Amino acid sequence: AARPVLEHHVRARVAALPNVEFLAGHDIAGLAATADGSRVTGVHVQERAGGSTPRRLDADLVVDATGRGSRAPKWLSALGYPEVPVERVKVDLAYTSRRYRLRANPFTDEQSINVIATPGHPRGAFFHTLGGDECLLSLTGLLGDHPPTDPEGFLAYAKSLPVPDVHDAIADAEPLTEPVCFRFPASTRRHYELLPRVPDGFLVVGDAFCVFNPVYGQGMTAAALQARTLRRHLGGTLRPAAFFADAARVIDAPWEIAAGGDLAFPGVTGRRSVKTHLGNAYVARVQSAATRDAEVTNAFMRVAGLIDPPQALMRPRLALRVLRGARRAARDDDQLAA
Length: 338
Ligand SMILES: Cc1cc2nc3c(=O)[nH]c(=O)nc-3n(C[C@H](O)[C@H](O)[C@H](O)COP(=O)(O)OP(=O)(O)OC[C@H]3O[C@@H](n4cnc5c(N)ncnc54)[C@H](O)[C@@H]3O)c2cc1C
Hints:
The chain is an alpha+beta fold.
């Protein structure tokens, strides 16, 4: 399903819970806490309509799920807690997106045609059917090579992709919107689990905890896995430090895939360990083999979708298919070039 459909259903199910009330049109302006700052006791909320004054909303537990703009590090620092350690991998990525009505349908059984950016071909695309003859195309480019928002530039960028499928489908399609650009500067991981002390009654989840480069499509799954961790912790005596430690473990695998994957691009700055180099060399072979072997594609997508751990790609039977497939792909490419 398209994301708005998914979000609509999740929201409707949450709204149907008898003890849930939405406070629409309000912002959380800050935390309320005990005088010594050892416990968060609620939040200050403010109506977005101009001129309103913040009011206090008491709570046994406050969970910050305010996304990548979370002000939790500032709020904690105002309560006297140390600075939250932050890890950033700067990618200077942009998505430029446009909706079309297609004349010919390139989607058969597929929901989308995705051109995955690689260090050899850093431009990518996510091309989704929206049902019927409508589709959404997002072109992606990193390290400042951003897809343009003028129609001619957008089309030329689509033409520069390493495969022709996307450009061929939209070349004579009817545009339904203007191209719109969204910029994403960096993947950002906030290490709450490394803080020497945290207040009682306060947790952070989702993008507020860790923001992944969106091209890997992991943010919602990682947030859902953290919600599951939260459910487990709510079953007993809640200790925020223990929650942060467990939630950080949940984040480790997707962070390794996303931040590690970005470090395969030479222009991306960050610390590269031997493990990063070896991992990226292997993933390049997986992606290459996946262009010819559906079993490898399936295994890769299961890991990218966080259904299986990254180690699943290392199982001997699959590793053999990867190495054989990558060799075959390299031979085919050489023949094509000759
Ligand atoms: C271009 C793009 C493509 C993506 N594609 C995928 C994908 O294919 N698959 C995937 O899994 N993930 C994807 N993601 C990531 C995914 O969108 C996020 O990981 C996910 O939305 C995080 O959920 P969240 O609830 O933590 O934060 P958000 O979805 O950002 O929600 C935070 C909410 O808090 C509200 N808020 C913020 N500050 C305040 C405040 N002070 N007071 C009150 N409310 C506040 C915001 O208005 C917002 O409604 C993509 C992200 C982007 C940008």
